[in-house]
Amino acid sequence: MNYPYVIEFRQALVAWFESEKRDLPWRHTTDPYKIWVSEVMLQQTRVDTVIPYYNRFMESFPTLEVLADAPQEYLLKHWEGLGYYSRARNLQAGVREVIETYGGVVPNNRHDISKLKGVGPYTAGAILSIAYNQPEHAVDGNVMRVLSRVLHIHEDIALPKTKKIFEEAVEQLIDPQHASSFNQGLMELGALICTPTSPKCLLCPVRDYCIAFHEGEPEKLPVKSKKVKMKHITYDVLVCEDADGRLLVEQRPETGLLANLWQFPMIEQGTETIEQWLQAYVTDVQTQQELLTFKHVFSHLTWQITAHYMRCQTPMEGEWLTREQIANLPMPVPMLKIFQAIQK
DNA sequence: AAACCGGGGTC
DNA sequence: GACCCAGGTTT
């Protein structure tokens, strides 16, 4: 790397971070467990979204031991609405590994910490640098955007192999004495100044050391190829209430989309008719009315949902639960929307 | 390397 | 609508 401003860049970035950093809940600690939780929550998730989840999570699971012993349903209830629910299950598996294999102490080296469930190259580097102040790279989307501009790197960041270029760049650039502030500074800069569409270069502490700024078009970087086709599925959702006020719910499979979360029964349009479903699962349907229709957008998937409400008899099989019981179950956001609609 | 895995904010 | 976000796992 023939970048001539290594020393100046380090000093300016660390000084700026120390002076301008936001006051965030996980910045009041260096407890590796708490840093770990915050980093997992922050994967593909904005700071403002994470803050209330992090605070509530720490109230309920203040230590790694408490989390290790928690029922998965209670854990998932704390993750409800955050998305990517495998993060929560992997996190719990990870803390259990730490207790069983490392005596309850989060490993302080990349080799061991990377073996933990849900801890990839980024999260490993983030914990090592932020909790242990070790000069390890932690390359996320922010870091690739910032360094693609500072170093004028035009490789396609959508390609997996490109990340190695940035990891090696961080290894050269990182301030060995201030690893925590350096890594957080790169991310903070990406979040506040070096933003995707309209970077605030006039406010940037490392503008003088940024090649893309000198070249004139920092907003053209990073290079990122396109992708993705959106799938569209139409569902009817059936909210069945019996004479005792119980509702029929079901748990989703333990793998795949929204694994282990609970829902009201869904019928994919074009497979089974509502009438066929009713004959198989409930008896003596009385009132039947349409509740609401809405669209829920996932990353690469759209659900078009029509929710129906009906009163019927309790049959032999199926989970019929009170509203209080259902309120304690983790449900995906579209189901929460429906549940909300029937709380009259 | 590509696909899968949520949800919300922004332009 | 498309893009992005303090990514990791599975195929």
Can you walk me through this structure?
It comes from Lysinibacillus piscis. There is one protein chain. The chain has 344 residues and is of the alpha+beta class. The chain has two domains: 6-220, Endonuclease III, domain 1 (Orthogonal Bundle); 231-341, Nucleoside Triphosphate Pyrophosphohydrolase, CATH 3.90.79.10. The chain has 15 helices and seven strands. It has helices spanning 6-20, 32-41, 47-60, 64-69, 72-79, 86-102, 110-113, 121-132, 141-150, 162-173, 179-192, 211-215, 274-281, 323-327, 333-341; strands at residues 231-241, 247-251, 262-263, 266-268, 288-297, 301-311, 319-321. The strands form two sheets. A four-stranded mixed sheet has the order 4-1-6-5, with helices on one face. The termini are far apart. The chain binds a DNA duplex (11 and 11 nucleotides) through residues 38-50, 81-87, 90, 117-123, 126, 138, 140-143, 159-161, 183-184, 187-188, 190-191, 196-198, 224, 226-228, 230, 256-259, 296-301, 332-333.
Question: How big is the Rg?
Answer: 24 Å
String of helices and strands: HHHHHHHHHHHHEEEEHEEEHH
Largest sheet: 4 strands, mixed
Helix % is: 40-55%
CATH hierarchy class name of the largest domain: Mainly Alpha
- Low-pLDDT ranges: none
Portion in strands? 5-15%
* Spatial separation of the terminal alpha carbons: 64 Å
Protein structure class:
alpha+beta
The CATH superfamily name of the largest domain is Hypothetical protein, domain 2
CATH topology of the largest domain: Endonuclease III, domain 1
SS element count, helices: 15
Overall domain count? 2
Total number of strands: 7
- Secondary-structure arrangement, i.e. CATH architecture of the largest domain: Orthogonal Bundle
Question: How confident is the prediction overall: mean pLDDT?
Answer: 95
- Described by the principal axes of the CA atoms, the overall outline is elongated
The strand line-up of the biggest sheet is 4-1-6-5
